[in-house]
């Protein structure tokens, strides 16, 4: 991370953007969950998995084109593969909480299902934030580092030209 308050400001902006996309994704997830749960006879966890998959697709688009639009785009296949891998882990965390509440404790009313779905999303979000920012949407080199590298290259080029002339 950058030195001082500029690095902190950047992290706060990143968390805010992640939260905006995640908040919209939360609404998509819960909306699809309740729609599927009440419009079909699917068991609660299956309805939740469908909702989570829809939210994963929504969130990828939001993260790539809003939250992390300034990040490295050279390895799209790698990025998408890692995103899906970490999203599946998040899916297991999220729906594992709901599964435990539903099948271990018998908490299966619509209100209880929504509470534990929400709780599972919260736990999975902590994992997703860490994994996405650390592994999926890599940071581009800091501007200062790029400027330093360019100045070193220019100095080396001048030195090489001077040696040739001598």
Q: What does this molecule look like?
A:
The mean pLDDT is 86. Helix 1 runs antiparallel to helix 4, helix 2 packs antiparallel against helix 3 and helix 3 (76-104) runs antiparallel to helix 4 (110-136). The longest helix is centred in the first third of the chain and has 36 residues, at 4-39. The chain has 166 residues and is mostly helical. The chain starts with a helix and ends with a helix. The chain has helices at residues 4-39, 44-67, 76-104, 110-136, 143-165. Helices cover 84% and strands 0% of the residues. The radius of gyration is 22 Å and the shape is elongated.
Descriptive labels:
single chain, 166 residues
Low-confidence stretches at least 5 residues in length (pLDDT < 50)? none
**SS-derived structural category:** mainly alpha
Number of discrete helical segments = 5
Beta-strand fraction estimate: under 5%
Shape: elongated
- Count the E strands: 0
**Overall mean pLDDT:** 86
**Distance between the ends:** 43 Å
Radius of gyration: 22 Å
Query: Which bin fits the share of residues in helices?
Result: over 70%
Reported for the largest beta sheet, the result is: none
Strand/helix succession: HHHHH
Q: What is this entry, summarized?
A:
The chain is 84% helix and 0% strand. The chain has five helices and no strands.
Topology, please?
Blueprint: H1 4-39, H2 44-67, H3 76-104, H4 110-136, H5 143-165
Helix pairs in contact: 1-2, 1-4, 2-3, 3-4
């Amino acid at each position: 991370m950058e030195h001082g308050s500029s690095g902190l400001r950047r992290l706060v902006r990143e968390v805010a953007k992640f939260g905006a996309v995640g908040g919209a994704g939360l609404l998509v997830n819960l909306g699809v969950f309740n729609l599927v749960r009440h419009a079909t006879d699917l068991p609660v966890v299956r309805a939740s998995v469908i909702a989570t998959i829809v939210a994963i697709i929504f969130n990828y688009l939001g993260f790539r084109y809003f939250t992390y639009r300034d990040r490295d785009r050279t390895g799209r296949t790698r990025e998408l593969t890692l995103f899906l891998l970490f999203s599946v882990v998040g899916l297991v965390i999220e729906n594992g909480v709901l599964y435990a509440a539903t099948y271990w404790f018998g908490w299966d009313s619509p209100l209880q299902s929504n509470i534990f779905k929400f709780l599972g999303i919260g736990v999975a979000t902590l994992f997703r934030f860490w994994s996405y920012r650390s592994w999926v949407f890599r940071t581009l080199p800091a501007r200062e580092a790029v400027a330093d590298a360019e100045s070193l290259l220019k100095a080396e080029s001048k030195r090489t030209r001077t040696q040739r002339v001598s």
